[in-house]
Design goal:
The structure is a single chain. With about 190 residues, this protein is α/β, with parallel strands linked by helices. It has helices at about 35-50, 60-75, 75-85, 90-115, 155-165, 180-190; strands at about 1-5, 15-20, 25, 120, 135, 140-145, 170-175. The chain has a three-stranded parallel beta sheet with strand order 1-7-6, with helices on both faces. A two-stranded antiparallel sheet has the order 2-3. Strands 4-5 form a two-stranded antiparallel sheet. A hairpin with a 4-residue loop joins strand 2 (about 15-20) and strand 3. The longest helix has 27 residues, at about 90-115. The radius of gyration is 19 Å and the shape is globular. Mean pLDDT is about 85; it is low at about 5-30.
Length: about 190
């Protein structure tokens, strides 16, 4: 998983990139922006992780969804404080309108993951007898999630749930107009996923 952040408003000078297996810190940029070569390298790394087919297994998907739920539970205070700084949201509002909805998405994904991964069989025409047809859901590979400033947690983490449940690698670009939220997402994704 990769998170691209821009520093500045919150006083954080560090940008971070999260590989599929281990975090790698960008230490070379001094102006707070990621270069094309940094992003290209992250895309190559994520595509290689997807090509290894480790994201295809049910166990990997369940582990990542549970880790995301742990991120939301244990990082609730930090996420709510970031929303308060950026959007003046009360912690109750942050939990009820953003974090709680994402946790419900995770619970739904965990409950239905087996059915979503199972092929669905469809009816055949008489010309195809004795064959049968089925539809198998395959992951896209690499997904970019561009967060928004007005609901920074919900509009970043809710698509992440679907992408992980689908077996994809993800690059996250948090909303740049909510810098505290963006940096909180960056720190917590590095810690938990």
């Amino acid at each position: 998983m990769t998170v691209a952040t821009r520093s500045g408003a919150a006083g954080v000078d560090q940008k971070s990139r999260y590989g599929a297996t281990s975090p790698i810190m960008f230490e070379d940029a001094t102006d707070g922006s990621l270069g094309v070569e940094d992003i290209s390298a992250a895309v190559v790394q994520l595509r290689a992780a997807f090509a290894s087919e480790k994201t295809m297994s049910r166990e990997w998907r369940v582990d990542q969804l549970k880790a995301l739920r742990t991120l939301l539970t244990e990082g609730r205070g930090e996420l709510c404080e970031a929303m308060r700084v950026d959007l003046h949201k009360h912690p109750f509002e942050g939990v009820s309108t953003e974090l709680g909805l994402v946790q419900a998405e995770i619970d739904t994904a965990l409950a239905n993951l087996d059915g979503w991964m199972r092929p669905s069989f469809t009816a055949n025409s008489a010309m195809n007898i004795p064959c049968w047809s089925s539809t198998q859901q395959d992951p896209l590979g690499l997904v970019l999630i561009m967060g928004a400033w007005n609901y920074p947690m919900q509009l970043t983490f809710a698509p992440l749930v679907g992408a992980i449940a689908g077996g994809n690698c993800v690059m996250i670009k948090p909303g740049s107009y909510a810098p505290a939220s963006s940096h909180a997402i960056s720190r917590l994704v590095q810690k938990y996923l």
